TrEMBL record:
Protein name: Sialate O-acetylesterase
SUPFAM superfamilies: Galactose-binding domain-like (SSF49785), SGNH hydrolase (SSF52266)
Signal sequence interval, chain numbering: 1-23
Keywords: Hydrolase, Signal
Organism: Paraflavisolibacter caeni
Annotated ranges, domain Sialate O-acetylesterase: 110-228, 428-532
GO MF annotation terms: sialate O-acetylesterase activity
A Pfam family the protein falls into: SASA
Length: 651
C-alpha cells in the first residue's frame, strides 16, 4: 500500500513538472487590448510562463527581457513613456514564437483606481441625464476596466473577470458614473488618455477592502479579521451563492405563484393584511431585515371627473425594484430605478368611476423597499385635480416563493482586497478614487482609524510613493431634522475630514447635492467634477479653486463666536443668496440650538439669543443638514464642529 502511494506521488510529480515545463505564457486579466498604461513611470508588466523561460516584451519600439523564476513568474519594467499611442504590446517566450501574446490599441496616459461601495459603482445609465449622457459619450481616449465582483480568503494573483473597454455610447452606460465624469473632465483639462480601473461593490465596509496584515495591526479590526480563520469559502458555497442570486433575480423579475394575477385584483380580500402609513421605508415598520417580495395595496375613490381620462400616477421615490398595478393591470416594471421620475400614465380605458385599487410589488433587498417621503410626491392626477396617495396602505410579505439564503461574504474583512485589489498590484497608476463610508456609519468613530489604514495599506503595496488618494465625503441623506441632533453620518463625515491630515489626500465635499430619499443621489456629474478639480490642483498643480471653505479656528466674542475659514477664494457667500443656515450653537450644558450667522469677510459670526454664554459651534452637523455656506466658486463649506464632545459612535 505504501509502495503504491509512493509510485502515485512520483507519477503526480512527473505530470506536474511536465505541465510546468509546457506551461503557456500568460498575462493577468488586468492587461488587455485597449488598456491605458501609466505615463512617466517605469511601466510594470508581469505574467507566468514555464520556469526558467526567457521572456521578451516589446511595447511600441521598446524591448526588454526577463526570466521566469522557479514558480514560472516573471516581471518586466519598461522605461518611462510620455502620453500617447496607440501602441502594441507583444510578449514572446524564447524558443516558442508561436506562444506569443499581442495586445493592441494601447494608450499611455493616467490610470486611476476607482473603488468603494455603491455610489462609486452606480452606473451612468442609473444616474442623472442618463439618456443624454450616453448618447453624447464618444471619448475614445477614456478607457475602463470593470473588475467583476469576487471574494476570497487569501490574496489572488488574478481577477475573476474584467476587460478593458473604450468609452463610447455602447459601453459607457455600465461604467461608474462618478469615475466617468471624473475622467471626462480630467481628459478635457489635461489632454491625456485616462484609464479607470473600477473595482467597487455596493454595501461593503472599508474592512473588506483592506489587507489582513494591515487589519491585524489595530485592536479595532484584529478580532473580526481573525474570525475569518474559521470561515471557509468552499467553491461549492460560492457556486451556491451565485446560483442563489440567479434564483433571487428570477423571483424579482417573475412573480411567483400567480401573484401578479391574484394580489393586484380589486376583488382580492386583503382584510388580514397589515396597515402601514405611506410614504415610508418598510424595514422601519415591522418588517425589519426581511428579504423577499412584499405586496402593497391601497383603495381610493376617484371623482367622476377622472372617468375616461388618461391619468398620471406618481410614486415619488420608491426604492429599487418594483411593479405598479392599477385595478389589476400592470402599469410598469421598474428595475434598478430605471425610471427617473417614477411617474406613469394610467390609460383612460382603465379609469372608471368609483373605487379603484392600486398595488405595488416591491423587492426587499439590502434593507430597502417601500415608498420614500415626502408625502407630497405620491399622488394621482388628471392634470387639473390631484388626489394624494399618502396615508394608510396595506402590506403583506411571504406571499411568493421565499428568497434563498444570501451569504453576503463580501462584507467580511479582507475578502475584497484579496480578490479585487491584490490582483491589480503593481499595475502602474496615477492615484486612487474612493467613494465609501455609508456601510461604516454606525461605527463612524472607528473610521478615523480604519480609513487611514486602508490608504497606507494600498500605498505601501503599490510601492509608488504616497500616491494621490482622492475621495468623496458622504452626501446629505435621510430626513431633515427640525432641531439640532446627533448624527452617525455627521461623525463619519468628520472621520473623512480628519483623514485629510494624511499626506497627498483630497476630499470632495458634496453636502449640497445629496437627496433626502435616495442613498444614491443622481447628480454624479458634480461629484466627478469636484474630484477632478482636486486632482487638477493637487496632482497636476493647476491654479484653481478646488474645495469649499474649510474651518480654521474660532474665538469667543462676548455672547458670539467668530468662526474663521480658509479656502474662501474671493469671499464667503450663500448658495441661494439667502441668510446663512446650518449653524448650531451650545453652552456648557452641551444643548445645541439653531443659530443666527452673519458673514463678515472670511469669518462667520454665530450667535443665539437662547445661549448667553456659548462655548461650541457646529455646522452642517446632521444626516441631511439644511446648510448653504459656499465660497465664491460655489463650492460648499465642509461640515465641522468646534467641540470634541463624545459622539454617539464613540464607545
Amino acid at each position: 500500500m505504501k509502495t503504491n502511494k509512493k509510485i502515485l506521488a512520483v507519477v503526480s510529480a512527473i505530470f506536474f513538472l511536465q505541465s510546468m515545463c509546457s506551461a503557456q505564457i500568460t498575462l493577468p486579466k488586468v492587461f488587455g487590448d485597449n488598456m491605458v498604461l501609466q505615463r512617466d513611470i517605469q511601466i510594470p508588466v508581469w505574467g507566468k510562463a514555464a520556469p526558467g523561460a526567457l521572456i521578451t516584451a516589446k511595447l511600441g519600439p521598446v524591448r526588454t527581457t526577463a526570466k521566469a523564476n522557479q514558480e514560472g513568474k516573471w516581471t518586466v519594467r519598461f522605461p518611462k513613456f510620455k502620453a500617447g499611442g496607440p501602441y502594441e504590446l507583444e510578449i514572446i517566450e524564447s524558443g516558442k514564437p508561436d506562444a506569443s501574446i499581442r495586445l493592441k490599441g494601447i494608450l499611455i496616459g493616467d490610470v486611476w483606481l476607482a473603488s468603494g461601495q455603491s455610489n462609486m459603482e452606480w452606473q451612468v445609465q442609473q444616474a442623472q441625464d442618463a439618456r443624454k449622457e450616453i448618447e453624447n459619450a464618444n471619448a475614445p481616449q477614456i478607457r475602463f476596466l470593470v473588475v467583476e465582483h469576487d471574494k476570497k480568503l487569501s490574496p489572488q494573483s488574478d481577477i475573476q473577470a474584467g476587460k478593458w473597454k473604450v468609452c463610447d455610447t455602447a459601453n459607457v452606460k455600465e461604467f461608474s458614473a462618478v469615475a466617468y465624469y471624473f475622467a471626462r473632465k480630467l481628459h478635457g483639462d489635461q489632454h491625456v488618455p485616462v484609464g479607470i480601473i473600477q473595482s467597487a461593490w455596493g454595501g461593503t465596509p472599508v474592512e473588506a477592502w483592506t489587507s489582513r496584515d494591515m487589519l491585524l495591526t489595530s485592536p479595532i479590526s484584529r478580532a473580526s479579521t481573525l474570525s475569518n480563520d474559521t470561515l471557509h469559502l468552499d467553491p461549492e458555497d460560492l457556486v451556491a451563492d451565485s446560483l442563489n442570486w440567479i434564483r433571487i433575480w428570477h423571483i424579482v423579475l417573475n412573480p411567483q405563484n400567480n401573484a401578479d394575477k391574484i394580489f393586484p385584483a380589486p376583488e382580492y380580500n386583503d382584510a388580514d393584511w397589515t396597515g402601514i402609513e405611506m410614504p415610508n421605508v418598510l424595514k422601519d415598520f415591522g418588517i425589519g431585515n426581511y428579504e423577499g417580495m412584499v405586496w402593497l395595496r391601497k383603495k381610493i375613490t376617484l371623482p367622476e371627473s377622472f372617468a375616461g381620462k388618461d391619468l398620471t400616477l406618481n410614486l415619488g421615490h420608491p426604492e429599487m425594484n418594483y411593479s405598479l398595478y392599477f385595478n389589476g393591470q400592470e402599469i410598469c416594471k421598474n428595475i434598478w430605478n430605471s425610471n427617473a421620475t417614477h411617474s406613469f400614465t394610467i390609460p383612460a380605458r382603465l379609469v372608471q368611476r368609483g373605487e379603484i385599487t392600486i398595488a405595488v410589488r416591491v423587492a426587499m433587498l439590502w434593507g430597502g423597499g417601500g415608498l420614500n417621503p415626502p408625502a407630497d410626491d405620491i399622488y394621482i392626477t388628471d392634470g387639473a385635480s390631484k388626489i394624494s396617495l399618502a396615508g394608510k396602505w396595506l402590506y403583506q410579505k411571504g406571499l411568493e416563493t421565499a428568497f434563498p439564503k444570501i451569504l453576503n461574504y463580501q462584507y467580511y474583512p479582507t475578502v475584497l482586497f484579496n480578490a479585487m485589489i491584490s490582483p491589480l498590484i503593481p499595475y502602474g497608476i496615477k492615484g486612487f478614487l474612493w467613494y465609501q463610508g455609508e456601510a461604516n456609519a454606525q461605527a463612524a468613530y472607528n473610521y478615523r482609524k480604519l480609513f487611514p489604514m486602508l490608504i497606507t495599506d494600498w500605498r505601501q503595496r503599490w510601492k509608488q510613493g504616497k500616491l494621490p488618494f482622492l475621495y468623496a465625503q458622504l452626501a446629505n441623506f435621510k430626513k431633515v431634522q427640525p432641531l439640532p441632533a446627533e448624527s452617525d453620518w455627521a461623525e463619519l463625515r468628520e472621520a473623512q475630514t480628519l483623514t485629510l491630515s494624511q499626506p497627498n489626500t483630497g476630499m470632495a465635499c458634496i453636502i449640497d447635492i445629496g437627496e433626502a430619499n435616495d442613498i444614491h443621489p443622481k447628480n454624479k456629474q458634480e461629484v466627478g467634477r469636484r474630484l477632478a478639480l482636486i486632482a487638477n490642483k493637487m496632482v497636476y498643480k493647476k491654479d484653481c479653486i478646488a474645495t469649499g471653505p474649510v474651518y480654521k479656528n474660532f474665538r469667543k466674542d462676548g455672547n458670539r463666536i467668530r468662526i474663521g475659514f480658509s479656502k474662501t477664494a474671493s469671499g464667503l457667500s450663500t448658495k441661494d443668496g439667502k441668510e446663512v443656515t446650518g449653524f448650531a450653537i451650545a453652552g456648557k450644558d452641551k444643548q445645541f440650538y439653531w443659530a443666527k450667522a452673519i458673514i463678515e469677510g472670511n469669518e462667520v459670526v454665530v450667535y443665539s439669543d437662547i445661549v448667553a454664554d456659548p462655548v461650541a459651534v457646529r455646522y452642517a452637523w446632521a444626516d441631511n443638514p439644511a446648510c448653504n455656506l459656499v465660497n465664491a466658486e460655489g463650492l460648499p463649506a465642509i461640515p465641522f464642529r468646534t467641540d470634541d464632545w463624545k459622539g454617539i459612535t464613540q464607545k
